[in-house]
Specification:
Blueprint: E1 2-6, H1 13-24, E2 28-30, H2 31-41, H3 44-55, H4 61-72, E3 81-84, H5 90-103, E4 109-114, H6 117-126, E5 127-130, E6 136-138, E7 157-158, H7 165-179, H8 181-188, E8 192-196, H9 201-211
Parallel strand pairs: 1-3, 1-4, 2-3, 4-8
Antiparallel strand pairs: 5-6, 5-7
Helix pairs in contact: 2-3, 4-5, 6-7
Bound molecules: adenosine-5'-diphosphate and zinc ion.
Adenosine-5'-diphosphate binds at residues 9, 30-32, 35, 52-53, 56-59, 64, 85-86, 88, 92, 162, 171.
Amino acid sequence: MRFIFIGPPGAGKGTVAKILSRRFSIPHISTGDLLRAHIQQKSELGRQAAAFVDQGKLVPDALVIEMVRTRLKEPDASQGYILDGFPRTVEQAEALGKILRDEGMVVEHILNFDASNAKIIERLSGRRICSKCGEIYHVRNIPPKKEGLCDRCGGELIQRKDDSEDTVRRRLEVYRRETAPLIDYYNRMRLLKDLPADLEVAELNPILDQLVK
Ligand code: ADP
Ligand code: ZN
């Protein structure tokens, strides 16, 4: 099963990806996570991407496309995956279409997440992430059992640098300008399914069952 997730930052893509990744035993491939890993490891790609990510701007298409092409060739992606945060431009969507055609593969589900700007800012400002395993928390909506520590692995919970309010606003602008056009692009191909994303985690499961049966 192959999924593509489209939606603004903070619309809950990462949370839904984790649910579906466990349900179907397929990897959650987040280009944001991949880029942050490169930046932390100070790889050549990481050095080139860091300034864009920190400012909430898009990393140039050529870099991201090459990174995804490489990632999709890994064995764990052979039975499917969830692409979260890619494609983010029409050029990336076209590159992905070509990668899929070359491999004779199709994407079964393209989910369109949406959420109001107010909800997004509330979510991102309270978001905390496990520095070890990547599990997502929220100070009010999904609090860990012990403050500041991950329930699953005990890792320290941190706030992403680009979750500061100014950078969130920039990321929202970039989304509406560069990525929202993909909604039309995939709608024209009749591939898109809308997910009402102003929902809380408990309300999600029955809706996902409906969408993905
Ligand atoms: P969010 O969707 O919450 O903004 P991500 O973790 O998906 O966060 O992305 C964080 C940053 O990584 C983006 O602001 C951008 O700089 C970079 N990035 C991630 N995916 C892409 C992509 N497909 N194309 C260009 N830049 C990307
Ligand atoms: Zn953890």
